[in-house]
Amino acid sequence: MNYFEQQLKKLFEDDSVFEDTRFAGRACFGRIGDDIRVRAEFKENGIHNQFDSLMINLINRREGAIDSLNIHFSDLYGKVPMSRNPGTTIVPHLWINNGKPEWYGYMPTPRDISALREAARTYVDAFREPAMAGGMQQQM
Q1: Is the pTM of this model over 0.85?
Q2: How many separate domains does the chain show?
């Protein structure tokens, strides 16, 4: 299992955001209904080998792409203190340094991971099929 998969597992392994979660390569896959599939992966946004957001794509397995959201760590966390250089702040991101992926200067806390998971859940929930009350939908 690669480093990207390990980080995605911290977010989605428990199937609480979407169901039937699977990990392959640098991506995570799941479903939120009979026809809607989810793909989540860390994304580069302008700087090679710096992954500063989580991209979530929703796909209808019969009709294709539905929507996508790029959750930027800067929007979610802002700048954080750099662990190896007190007094310096950075925007958290994964990077590949000498062929080895790792978090740059800051390791996300359980609270950070929870915040990213909740942002992903809020987005995915907007596309989830509403539960039918009592098995039947009321008609107007």
Answers
A1: yes
A2: 1
